[in-house]
Write a structure and sequence with these properties.
alpha/beta, globular, about 325 residues, Rossmann fold, 7-stranded mixed sheet, 2 domains, THDP-binding, 2-oxoisovalerate dehydrogenase subunit beta, 5-stranded mixed sheet
Length: about 325
């Protein structure tokens, strides 16, 4: 494959493509996790990588998330750039001690003498009819940990570019991949090794009447809601946050200064969700720009229900459109 190859690929294939690029071009990069080698990972994100790069670069680990986290932190502290995979979002909790107490603190603890250039890939979110612990949207807990970057791509192009940037970042990155859209659609992605900027929101659609702010798999429903609003004569600007921590609040504030209204959409539970942080910053810094109260369209304050009710839990186009209408009716 040439460096300028353009491939029509899914989000999961974009992940594989980015990992292959970094493994090929940086000998300090390695991939580890449960079944990532022989089987290519539970979602096949690492399919074929062990065969191409060998067992010393793509490592199968024991079924032990605590050990995986410890190995990853240790490798990163000694000059490697490990990319660890968690099989599902709900399996990340045994890793928290290593992430919170060590990975996120290395730079501060050593006054910059050591960093921790690791990436933890986390298949994230609901919508695939999976059992308990397999469908959680737990991004907000990581945004509360100083020293971590939290990144959530929403398309094949952004998955490729943001993963490259995450691997090259000198500090730890939690890279949460919306599994509902792993194979939902394809997009042309240039395999050129060009990273996208971290810590930047992407304005996916310009608008003048209301700002819709979202991330991850909910970008799809939010763009569809913008289309539905346009049919009613309402112009919606759509922002993909992409990097939740650190947050590019300036892009959101500039949009709200233009539209005067904001709807925040996320599938995590409402209480303590990251949407509350964005709403709080708007209250602190953009109060005089707002023509109506900020609306949030979120999951509910219950564990995500199994199977038949799962899609009822996730924000829908109809709920987003209704929230946008409320902001317009309010002022």
């Amino acid at each position: 494959m040439s460096a300028t190859a353009v491939n029509n690929i899914t989000l999961i294939e974009a992940i594989t493509q980015a990992l292959a690029w970094e493994l090929r071009n940086d000998e300090s990069v390695l991939v580890l996790g449960e079944d990532v080698g022989v089987n290519g990972g539970v979602f096949r994100a690492t399919a074929g990588l062990q065969k191409t790069f060998g067992e010393m670069r793509v490592l199968d680990t024991p079924l032990d998330e605590t050990t995986i986290a410890g190995l990853t932190v240790g490798l990163a502290s000694q000059g490697m750039k490990p990319v660890a995979e968690v099989q599902f979002d709900g399996f990340v909790y045994p890793m928290l001690d290593q992430i919170v107490c060590h990975a996120a603190r290395f730079r501060n603890r050593t006054r910059g003498r050591l960093t921790c250039p690791m990436v933890l890939r986390v298949p994230w979110g609901g919508g695939i009819r999976a059992p308990e612990h397999h469908s959680e949207a737990n991004e907000a807990m990581f945004t509360n940990i100083p020293g971590l970057r939290v990144v959530l791509p929403s398309s094949p192009q952004r998955a490729y570019g943001l993963l490259l940037a995450a691997i090259r970042d000198p500090d730890p990155v939690i890279f949460m991949e919306p599994k509902r859209i792993y194979r939902q659609y394809k997009e042309a992605v240039a395999d050129d090794g060009e990273a996208l900027p971290l810590d930047v929101c992407f304005v996916l659609r310009d608008g003048s009447d209301v700002t819709l702010v979202t991330w991850g798999a909910q970008v799809k429903e939010t763009l569809e809601a913008a289309d539905a609003l346009e049919a009613e004569g309402i112009s919606a600007e759509v922002i993909d946050v992409a990097t939740l921590k650190p947050l590019d609040f300036d892009t959101i504030a500039e949009s709200v200064a233009k539209t005067g209204r904001c709807v925040i959409v996320h599938e995590a539970a409402r209480t303590g969700g990251f949407g509350a942080e964005i709403a709080a910053r708007l209250a602190e810094h953009s109060m005089y720009d707002l023509l109506a109260p900020v609306e949030r369209v979120t999951g509910y304050d219950v564990p995500i229900p199994l199977f038949r009710l799962e899609m009822k839990y996730l924000p829908s186009v109809e709920r987003i459109v209704a929230a946008a209408r409320r902001t317009l009716d309010a002022g």
